[in-house]
C-alpha cells in the first residue's frame, strides 16, 4: 500500500505537467497559428466563456437536467438489468430463453432507438432517459450474468452445507456477493456508455436545458468557445462518476478483494 | 449420541459411448459415536464421490445413508463439510464466515458472534477475527473452514482431503490441531486422504478403498494410543502393515 501511495503521487505530478503542456500548446496553436476561434477557440477564450456562462447561471440548470436524464436511464437499467442478469446467471433455462433475444437486441446502437423514443415518450425527459437506458442496460445484464456464471461451485456447496438451501437465499448470500465485483464493473461500464449517449439523447430537443442540448445550441450560434466549455463539463462529470466507482465503491463494497489479484 | 450407517451405496454415471461407469459399488460401513475414520485410497477410487453422497450434495443411484436413525436425502445441519479447495467466502470476514450457518438460522448477531468467538479460540485464530480470507495463509483458511463447519454443532464432520494443498510442516501441525479439536468436541469424523501417514496419524480406524469401481477393501483398526509419535517404531510398524495390506489385497489391478 505504501509503495502505491508513492507511485500515485509521482504519477499525479507527471500527469499535471502533461495537462499544462497540452494547454500551452493548445493556446499557442489557437492564438498564434490558427487565429480563428470558430475553428479552434483558445483556452483563454474558453475560460472567458466559462465565466460568463457561470454568471448567467444556466449552467447549473443544464447539469441538473442532464443528471435527471442520466438518473432515469441508469436507474431503469439497474432495475431491469440486474434482475435479468441474475435469473439468466442462475438458471440455465432462463439463459437459453433470453440469451438469443438479448444477443439480437444488443448490437442495435442506442441512437437508432431515437425515433421510437420520441414516438413512445414524446419530447420528455423519459425519451432521453430511454436512450441512456438502452446504452446502459446491456453491459449490466452481461456482466451480472457472467459474474453469476463464474461463482465457484464450492461456495454454493459450502452454503448448502451450512443451511443456506433455498435459491433465493443462495442468490442473496452467496452468488450475489461473489458476483459483485463483476456486477460493479458492469455498472461502471454502463455509466460510461450511458453518459456517452447523453449528448445524442438531448440533441433532439427533449428539454430547454441539458449539457448535450446546450452543446448543440451553442454550435448553432457558432459560439465554439461555449461548446468547448460544455465538452469539458461532460468530460469532467463523466470522470467524476468513474472516480466515485474507483474510490468509493471499490473501497467500501469490495474491500475484501485487496490482496487478491484483481 | 451419533451413528452413521452407510448401506449398499452405489453410484454410476452414463458415459458418452452409452456404457455406464460405476464409480461406487455397494459400499457399506458404519461409524460409531465419537469415532475418527479415515478413508484411504488412490485418486479416482471414488472416495470424494462417497463423501459427497454422505453430505447430501449428490444423490446416490441406490443404497442409503442413515445418521442417528434418520435417512439423508439432502444437505442436513447434522453434517458438516470441510472442502478440499479453499471454500471460505472471500467477501466475509473470518468471524462472519464462521457465523454464517448461524446467520442462516436466524440467530441474532450478538449470539452468533459469541458462538463464533468460542470456535475462533478453539482454532487459535482469535486475533484474525476481522481479517478477510485473502489475508490468511492456506493453513489458517482451512482451520477457519473447520470452525465454520462446527458452529452448527453437527453430529458428523466430513473432511475431503482438507490438508492436501498444504506443505508438509503446516499439514502436520494442522493434523495435531484437528485431533485437539476432536478431543474437545468429540464429533464423528470421516476424513478422506490418500496419505497412509496421515491416516495412521489421525484415525481410530482406516477404511481402505480400491478403485474402478470404488469398493471397500479392508477395515483396519489403528492400535496406537494417542498422542501418536510419527517417528516412533510402533508408528512405522503400523504404517508398514497398512502398506502391506494395500499391496497384497487392495492394489490396483
The number of helical elements of chain B comes to 8
SSE succession of chain A: HHHHHHHHHH
Q: Decide which structural class fits the backbone of chain A.
A: mainly alpha
Can you summarize the main beta sheet of chain B?
6 strands, mixed
Overall geometry of chain B: globular
Instruction: Assign the CATH class of the largest domain in chain B.
Output: Alpha Beta
Question: At the fourth CATH level, what is the homologous superfamily of the largest domain in chain A?
Answer: MetI-like
Rg of Cα set of chain B: 18 Å
How many helix segments of chain A?
Answer: 10
CATH topology (level 3) name of the largest domain in chain B:
Rossmann fold
CATH class of the largest domain in chain A: Mainly Alpha
Assembly category: heterodimer
Instruction: Return residue spans of chain A where pLDDT drops below 50 for at least 5 consecutive residues.
Output: 1-6
CATH topology grouping of the largest domain in chain A: MetI-like fold
Give the distance, in angstroms, between the N- and C-terminal Cα atoms of chain B.
Answer: 40 Å
- CATH structural architecture of the largest domain in chain A: Orthogonal Bundle
Spans of chain B of 5+ residues with little confidence (pLDDT < 50)?
Answer: none
Mean pLDDT of chain A: 88
Amino acid at each position: 500500500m505504501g509503495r502505491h501511495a508513492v507511485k500515485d503521487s509521482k504519477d499525479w505530478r507527471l500527469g499535471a505537467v502533461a495537462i499544462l503542456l497540452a494547454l500551452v500548446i493548445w493556446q499557442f496553436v489557437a492564438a498564434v497559428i490558427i487565429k480563428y476561434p470558430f475553428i479552434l477557440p483558445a483556452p483563454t477564450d474558453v475560460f472567458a466563456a466559462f465565466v460568463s456562462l457561470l454568471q448567467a447561471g444556466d449552467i447549473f440548470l443544464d447539469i441538473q437536467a442532464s443528471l435527471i436524464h442520466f438518473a432515469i436511464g441508469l436507474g431503469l437499467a439497474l432495475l431491469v438489468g440486474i434482475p435479468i442478469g441474475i435469473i439468466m446467471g442462475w438458471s440455465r433455462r432462463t439463459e437459453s430463453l433470453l440469451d438469443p433475444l438479448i444477443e439480437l437486441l444488443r448490437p442495435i446502437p442506442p441512437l437508432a432507438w431515437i425515433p421510437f423514443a420520441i414516438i413512445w415518450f414524446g419530447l420528455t425527459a423519459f425519451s432521453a432517459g430511454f436512450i441512456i437506458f438502452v446504452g446502459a442496460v446491456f453491459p449490466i445484464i452481461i456482466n451480472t450474468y457472467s459474474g453469476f456464471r463464474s461463482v465457484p461451485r464450492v461456495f454454493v456447496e459450502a452454503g448448502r452445507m451450512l443451511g443456506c438451501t433455498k435459491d433465493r437465499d443462495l442468490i442473496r448470500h452467496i452468488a450475489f456477493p461473489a458476483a459483485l465485483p463483476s456486477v460493479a464493473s458492469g455498472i461502471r461500464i454502463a455509466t460510461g456508455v450511458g453518459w456517452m449517449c447523453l449528448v445524442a439523447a438531448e440533441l433532439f430537443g427533449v428539454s430547454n436545458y441539458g449539457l448535450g442540448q446546450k452543446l448543440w445550441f451553442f454550435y448553432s450560434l457558432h459560439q465554439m468557445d461555449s461548446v468547448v466549455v460544455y465538452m469539458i463539463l461532460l468530460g469532467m462529470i463523466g470522470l467524476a462518476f468513474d472516480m466515485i466507482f474507483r474510490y468509493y465503491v471499490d473501497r467500501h463494497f469490495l474491500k475484501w478483494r485487496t490482496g487478491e489479484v484483481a | 449420541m451419533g451413528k452413521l450407517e452407510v448401506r449398499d451405496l452405489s453410484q454410476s454415471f452414463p458415459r458418452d459411448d452409452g456404457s455406464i461407469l460405476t464409480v461406487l459399488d455397494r459400499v457399506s460401513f458404519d461409524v460409531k459415536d465419537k469415532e475418527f475414520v479415515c478413508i484411504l485410497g488412490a485418486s479416482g477410487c471414488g472416495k470424494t464421490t462417497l463423501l459427497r453422497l454422505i453430505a447430501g450434495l449428490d444423490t446416490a443411484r441406490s443404497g442409503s445413508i442413515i445418521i442417528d436413525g434418520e435417512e439423508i436425502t439432502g444437505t442436513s445441519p447434522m453434517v458438516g463439510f470441510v472442502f478440499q479447495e479453499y471454500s471460505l467466502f472471500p467477501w466475509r470476514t473470518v468471524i462472519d464466515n464462521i457465523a454464517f450457518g448461524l446467520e442462516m438460522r436466524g440467530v441474532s448477531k450478538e449470539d452468533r458472534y459469541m458462538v463464533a468467538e468460542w470456535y475462533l479460540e478453539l482454532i487459535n485464530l482469535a486475533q484474525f477475527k476481522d481479517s478477510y480470507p485473502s489475508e490468511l495463509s492456506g493453513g489458517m483458511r482451512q482451520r477457519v473452514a473447520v470452525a465454520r463447519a462446527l458452529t452448527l454443532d453437527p453430529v458428523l464432520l466430513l473432511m475431503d482431503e482438507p490438508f492436501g494443498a498444504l506443505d508438509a510442516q503446516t499439514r502436520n501441525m494442522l493434523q495435531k490441531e484437528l485431533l485437539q479439536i476432536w478431543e474437545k468436541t468429540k464429533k464423528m469424523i470421516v476424513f478422506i486422504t490418500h496419505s497412509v501417514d496421515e491416516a495412521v496419524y489421525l484415525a481410530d480406524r482406516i477404511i481402505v478403498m480400491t478403485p474402478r469401481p470404488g469398493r471397500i477393501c479392508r477395515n483396519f483398526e489403528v492400535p496406537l494410543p494417542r498422542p501418536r509419535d510419527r517417528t516412533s517404531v510402533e508408528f512405522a510398524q503400523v504404517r508398514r502393515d497398512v502398506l502391506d495390506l494395500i499391496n497384497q489385497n487392495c492394489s490396483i489391478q
